TrEMBL record, chain A:
Domain FAD-binding FR-type: 44-147
Pfam families per record: FAD_binding_6 (PF00970), Fer2 (PF00111), NAD_binding_1 (PF00175)
Lineage: Bacteria, Bacillati, Actinomycetota, Actinomycetes, Propionibacteriales
InterPro entries: 2Fe-2S_ferredoxin-like_sf (IPR036010), 2Fe-2S_ferredoxin-type (IPR001041), Beta-grasp_dom_sf (IPR012675), Cbr1-like_FAD-bd_dom (IPR008333), FAD-bd_FR_type (IPR017927), Flavoprot_Pyr_Nucl_cyt_Rdtase (IPR001709), FNR_nucleotide-bd (IPR039261), MRET (IPR050415)
Protein's recorded name: Ferredoxin reductase
Domain of life: Bacteria
Signal peptide annotation: none
Essential cofactor(s): FAD
PANTHER family in the record: NADH OXIDOREDUCTASE HCR
Protein source organism: Nocardioides jiangxiensis
Keywords assigned: 2Fe-2S, FAD, Flavoprotein, Iron, Iron-sulfur, Metal-binding, Oxidoreductase
UniProtKB/TrEMBL annotation, chain B:
Ranges of residues in domain Fatty acid desaturase: 71-338
Full protein name: Acyl-CoA desaturase
Annotated EC: 1.14.19.-
Source domain of life: Bacteria
Entries under InterPro entries matching the protein: FA_desaturase_dom (IPR005804), Fatty_acid_desaturase (IPR012171)
Oxidoreductase found in the keyword field: yes
Any GO molecular function: oxidoreductase activity
Length: 370, 399
């Protein structure tokens, strides 16, 4: 650690850098811009993290261990973070759930990322992530976590890479010597596709209150075989109706579980996290879908006009200037969905990116920060 | 209509089909560059920011020892360069959204602010919106008429006050950052009674907020840090701001005021198509040539034409784009205004001096000019009466 780094991380150094005097000296760029000359991790505005470990636990996943800077406020088991990496000069952001216990002692974050061969970020991480790399993360978000006080009986269901948030729940519960009952039902193709196989076995051996049930869809050496059904549910936990259930996995699994819980009339006991893969609908000329203005909570049925016009029609008053894509006054963040540049016809399929609402029309469901 | 010195206007020389074909070529050029944006561009802007930060830190440190003359001179040089790069190659370009494609909050137009007294929001309005949308339309583009304080085109009617034109122009260069900081107020309208005090307020608030912080930093806090040598730091900061003002205003003067850069009327630009908008950007702008360093220090506004065509494409790309734009212009017979920087600047100042006198001086001879000047108060009254009369007639007709 250099002397400057010590200055930025010592309490007095931080006090100075956070002071209004330092801010006034660094106006208008802010203190961060100068301190990062010394330590790229040091920032007051961004949560940045250094990758300290990269592991490939299965053939199609990569597990990153991150050391966040002090802006990281921690998370609740089950929540997710937005991870941003720069690929070809463009910052790309994706959501991932930490898989570690929320009480992990060294404060690091573990992300297990399933590689989507058609995707952009996950194959890139598989190929390029290496210790020492600096990435950005968002504060933890999401309502998918176990409430306090904890329920007496907990049922965790996951499939594939959906294991990460519930793995975090399981690790957090065992970390805190939870004395209730935990049943963990996990779906994978085969034994080799279970990302935390060894650790699950260890946990099972060590904690009496934890039952692990492995269901394999493409092999018959598991506790259960095939896809989710009510029989599976009963086999996993006869008293499933008394448990609080936390579920994360691919859409068919989610739909299956949801249907059973609905039929039983206990939907309120089912909590789920949905990481829907970005829907890549081919846009037609017909206007379909719903436009969500997330900042104001308004919604509108997409009528094919530009987002600026639709926002105004919905009674909002977003900033604008030229209305022809020159002046940048209207730029806003598209949170999700596909938009089409009405001048060039180009499609924008990425999430968390800047677009110009005055020359962008939504294709299907779009959520925008207006 | 044309500027004072453009004798043959270029406007409307092309047929509608030609104009559309020309616009299509520019659209294609743009699409090609946009598709190619990536790591190279991100690296470029980060590298420039790193250099600028080093210059800034070095400048501040040297001025700390500003009692030692060589340190003072080196400090002023470093700080001037830092401020120039911050404003031109970084601030101006990032705030145009040129690096928005990176999705990095540090380099997006919405979040960026610069080492200048003009508030970013105010600039986004006066420059990004008004100037770039209505480029050189007299009555809409405030820049085109010398920010209301210099006479740069015959479209601005002569008044005896323009006898001071060179003084206004020089003063504006010296105080450039302060001039732009209050540009959004259009205070000349306030003094003419066309704007109320209440309308001035939001702009004034923004001005106080931003300019106050800038002045505090440069003229109080940093000098204070130098303790007993505060006057040296104070003078050093003042000198650096002056150098930046003279340089950036010169660069900007060269963009639209030289001989050959045309102005337009509101009527002739009504219902303008996208391609015609491109056309106007070219006719209204002027490039200057210089070294690579001049390109960087001018924020690549040496390629003002390309900048006006594609204000949101990273500016250091204009150099490569210019080759094609020039070729397209040649093919369509469109004037491409380009000259060495000194020549463009000379042309601007010549104009500024020339426009101090009534226009009839040049069209009908010095005596006519003198007569126009001497009879000005009388004619002004007459004009006013004529306007009133017209008004009455128009109203009667409407009724
Ligand atoms: S309103 Fe000017 S870019 Fe959208």
């Amino acid at each position: 650690m250099s002397r400057m780094q010590m200055l930025t991380s010592s309490r007095m150094g931080r006090r100075f850098l956070d002071s209004s005097f330092a801010a006034a000296l660094a106006t208008p760029h802010g203190v961060d811009r100068y301190v990062e000359m010394v330590d790229p991790l040091w920032s007051r505005t961004e949560t940045r993290a250094e990758i300290t470990d990269v592991e490939r636990k299965t053939a199609d996943s990569v597990t990153l261990t991150l050391r966040p800077n002090e802006n990281w406020a921690g998370f609740k088991a089950g929540q997710f973070v937005k991870l941003s990496v720069e690929i070809d000069g463009v910052r790309r952001t994706r959501c991932y759930s930490p898989a570690n216990s929320q009480f992990r002692k060294d404060g690091k974050i573990e992300l297990t990322i399933k590689v989507d061969p058609k995707g952009l970020v996950s194959p890139w991480l598989l190929a390029n992530a290496r210790p020492g790399m600096i990435v950005q993360i968002s504060p933890a978000q999401g309502e998918f976590h176990i409430p306090l006080p904890h329920p007496r009986s907990i049922l965790l269901i996951s499939g594939g890479s959906g294991i990460t948030p519930v793995m975090s729940m399981l690790r957090t519960l065992t970390d805190r010597a939870y004395i209730g009952k935990v049943t963990f039902l996990h779906y994978a193709f085969t034994e080799d596709d279970v990302i935390y196989r060894d650790e699950l076995a260890e946990i099972e051996a060590k904690y009496e209150g934890v039952r692990i049930i492995r269901a394999y869809t493409n092999a018959d050496n598991g506790d259960l075989q095939g896809f989710f059904s009510k029989e599976h549910l009963v086999a996993a936990d006869k008293h499933f109706a008394e448990a609080e259930t936390y579920l994360c996995g691919p859409m068919p699994l989610m739909d299956g579980v949801r249907a059973v819980f609905e039929a039983e009339g206990i939907s309120d006991r089912l909590h789920l996290e949905q990481f829907a893969a970005p829907t890549r609908t081919v846009p037609t000329d017909e206007a379909t879908g719903e436009l969500t203005f997330s900042a104001s909570g308004e919604k509108a049925d997409n009528n094919g006009q530009t987002i600026l016009e639709q926002a105004e029609a919905a009674g909002l008053t977003p900033d604008y200037g030229c209305r022809i894509g020159i002046c940048n006054a209207c730029v806003s963040t598209k949170l999700s969905g596909i938009t089409r540049n009405v001048l060039t016809g180009e499609l924008n399929t990425d999430n968390d990116v800047n677009i110009k609402p005055c020359i962008s029309a939504p294709c299907g469901d779009v959520s925008i920060d207006l | 209509m044309s500027t004072a010195t453009t004798t043959t206007s270029q406007k409307h020389k092309l047929s509608p089909e030609q104009i559309e074909a020309f616009g299509k070529e520019l659209d294609d050029l743009r699409a090609r560059i946009v598709a190619d944006l990536g790591e190279k561009d991100a690296d470029y802007i980060r590298d420039i920011v790193n250099k600028q930060k080093k210059l800034e830190v070095a400048g501040r440190a040297l001025l700390w020892a500003g009692w030692f003359p060589p340190a003072w001179i080196a400090g002023v040089t470093a700080l001037s360069l830092s401020k120039i790069i911050d404003n031109m190659e970084i601030g101006h370009n990032v705030m145009h959204g040129q690096y928005d494609f990176m999705n990095d909050p540090q380099f997006t137009a919405k979040n960026f602010d610069w080492d200048n007294t003009i508030h970013a929001d105010s600039w986004l309005y006066t420059h990004n919106y008004v100037h770039h949308t209505f480029t050189n339309i007299v009555g809409k583009d405030h820049d085109a008429t010398g920010y209301g304080v210099i006479r740069v085109t015959e479209e601005q009617p002569w008044h005896p006050i323009w006898l001071l034109n060179p003084i206004f122009c020089g003063t504006l260069q010296v105080l450039f950052q302060w001039g732009t900081a209050i540009q959004e107020l259009e205070s000349e309208k306030f003094f003419r009674g066309e704007k109320s005090w209440a309308e001035m307020k939001p702009g004034l608030k923004r001005f106080r907020e931003k300019a106050g912080k800038q002045a505090l930093k440069d003229y109080a806090l940093f000098p204070l840090l130098s303790g007993p040598f505060a006057p040296f730091a104070f003078a050093g900061n003042m000198a650096a701001n002056l150098v930046r003002n003279l340089w950036s205003s010169s660069v900007i003067w060269c963009g639209h005021f030289p001989e050959g850069a045309e102005t337009f009327s509101i009527e002739e630009t009504e219902d303008e198509s996208h391609a015609e908008w491109y056309y106007r950007q070219i006719l209204g702008s002027a490039n200057f040539t210089g070294s690579h360093l001049v390109d960087v220090l001018s924020g690549n506004l040496s390629y003002q034409i390309e900048h006006h065509l594609f204000p949101d494409i990273p500016a250091y790309r204009y150099k490569e784009i210019a080759i094609e734009v020039r070729e397209i212009c040649e093919r369509y017979g469109i004037r491409y205004n380009e000259a060495p920087m000194a020549k463009q600047l000379w042309s601007v100042w010549k104009q500024v001096f020339k426009l101090t006198l009534p226009d009839s001086t040049y069209t009908q001879g010095p005596l006519a000019g003198l007569r126009e000047a001497l009879t000005f108060p009388f004619r002004a009254k007459q004009d006013e009466n004529a306007r009133d009369e017209q008004h009455v007639v128009a109203e009667a007709a409407a009724a």
